[in-house]
Amino acid sequence: MERAKRRRLAETALCVAAAIMLGLALSTWQPFRLAEARVFDFLATLSPPPMQSLAEADGGIVVVAIDEPSFAEIGLQWPWPRTLHAELVAALRKAGVKAIGLDLVFAEPSSPVADQALAAALGPDVVLAADESLIETPHMSQLIRTEPLPEFIEAGARVGLASVTLDADNVLRRMPTAPDIFAAELLEAAGGGDRGEKPEEAAAGRLIAPMGPARTYPTVSYYQALDPENFLPPGYLKGKIAVVGRSLQMAIPAETGGADSFATAFTASTGLLVPGVEIQATIADNLRHALSSRWAGLPLLGLAVAAAALLAGVAAFRPAGLWTLGAGLGLVALILAVSAVSFFFLRMFLPPIAPSLAVTAVLVPLAARDITQERAMRREVTRAFGHYLAPALVERLARDPSALKLGGERRELTILFSDIRNFTTLAESMKDEPERLTQLINRLLTPLSAAVLERGGTIDKFIGDCIMAFWNAPLDDPDHAVHAVEAGLAMLAAVDALNEELRAELGETAPKLAVGVGINTGACVVGNMGSATRFDYSVLGDAVNYASRLEGASKECRVPLLLGAGTAAKIGGRLGPLLVARIAVKGRSGVSPVYTVASIEPVEEATRKRFDAAVEGLLVGAEPVAASFEVPALEHLYATIAAREAHRHPSPIPGASEVRAETV
């Protein structure tokens, strides 16, 4: 019995020692430290510093945002003239601000007049931004510092380094280490001497206390600060520190990124970056109110890991049971509580992950040694959980993991674009009745969509009053061109039917709707298109662009349904395409024939050839032929084309009807 206890004690001591070494080793590994930094992000967002009470203590900081309203009001392209910045400095100074920080790098000269105006407005209460960038090559690393123009410094302005250092995961957590950082110079310009800590103290890896997500600070637009008497409450800026910089109201997603915008502790929860001007305000508040935290050093962290491992060893010394699990969870909860108390009350971040892993590293192997029956039960549970899986889905993803990735495949498709004619005029006529316009458009798009879906098409998207659809994807359709043309004819019939309904309902005041349809067949790429986080099943390719151009050209050609040569070739034996015109479209070289279909009933080959030959004559300026095509729809179509070409060729060319039609 004593021997068993001694053996158990030795095994427990071995597990405790191994857990301590594991915890210390992981604490020096950068990927592990990034995981610990995520814990800091979570704690920092739980209880950010109270902005209002800090502002009441000394006036606070206000952000003067170069934002969308300012661009709209000022009406100038960026960069703005420096005379405008000079006016801003004068307006802020007149409004009673204590200091002005321009988070802008004026490193290059502009016009002499503008530079002189800005220099005249500067003074010791103004801080200009400098920048540092590290240039790395295979042979050397060079740190380059960009300073404002000497004439601005000579005018008395202060210069502060606005560069910040990001962690390995590109998140801003640490205070700048340079002795002349922008925020410190700004506080000096505002009076200095009352800061809770100095930049030298923050240099030893202290952690920034984030004030909140983007737009947490009181913010006024640049144009408002130019004229505070008219745009701001009386005395709003008096006694405050003003920081000027880019701060767009349209928040920048973290995956998109942006110039002078940074991920902070709040980015994980909001997904948005924080503008650099608010970062500078945050650093200034951290300095003057002593808000930054210290990351616990390795000796203190080692002590915490050792204490956690020893307590876990005591809990695991007796045979394992449910209480062992409870003891382990209790120890982890205690570690989390100590870490939170240390962070919120002592301003020291003691990472809880390594001590928690030490508890796990002690309890798990010792408990696994004791509970063999429970291990058997775990195997049963594992098999039971297998019934909750979807084997067919897993097998499918295993065969084709790319199904969940961006990309597509190349295949031949038929693409259709349908657009309402004169929609702008229609919308303007109903500008006072937007609800009625919406009902009317929905009433039209419903049968048009049905025409696509009933013939096996895929609706790609609705673009306002336009429908984009395609055939032969995702399911194969050997007759995709025929089905697309049939859908186009059905759309035209649906519009006629709706016009009859509207005329019966509203009488002669009813709007007369019309659509143009463009259809083209060609090679495209079809698949998941978009970003890594959000994508749509769509198509890309020149054939798609040409289909859209055909829809637009249908109005000029005076036919509601226009087909490309690729589609005409596909349906030649089924629907009898008829030559309409030869056109040149934007973005494509040369002239291409375009076709239409009179009805769903095919046209005899001989009749079609006679029609095409007659149209060829019209296209080169010949007089219309007095021939009958035996089909009323073809007679009407030929008359329409003749009228169109007569407008284009007022004087027919003698003998021009001696042409040969191109057949498809």
Detailed description of the structure:
Helices cover 48% and strands 17% of the residues. The protein contains 25 helices and 19 strands. The chain is an alpha/beta fold.
What's the total count of β strands? 19
Proportion of residues in β-strands? 15-25%
Separate helix tally: 25
Helix content: 40-55%
Which class best fits the helix and strand makeup? Answer: alpha/beta
Q: How confident is the prediction overall: mean pLDDT?
A: 83
Main sheet record:
7 strands, mixed
Q: Taking Cα atoms only, what radius of gyration do you get, to the nearest Å? A: 37 Å
- Runs in which pLDDT lies below 50 for 5 or more consecutive residues are 193-197, 380-399, 655-664
> What's the end-to-end separation, in Å?
98 Å
Give the overall silhouette: extended
GO molecular function, one term: adenylate cyclase activity
Domain Guanylate cyclase: 414-551
Keywords: Membrane, Transmembrane, Transmembrane helix
Protein name: Adenylate/guanylate cyclase domain-containing protein
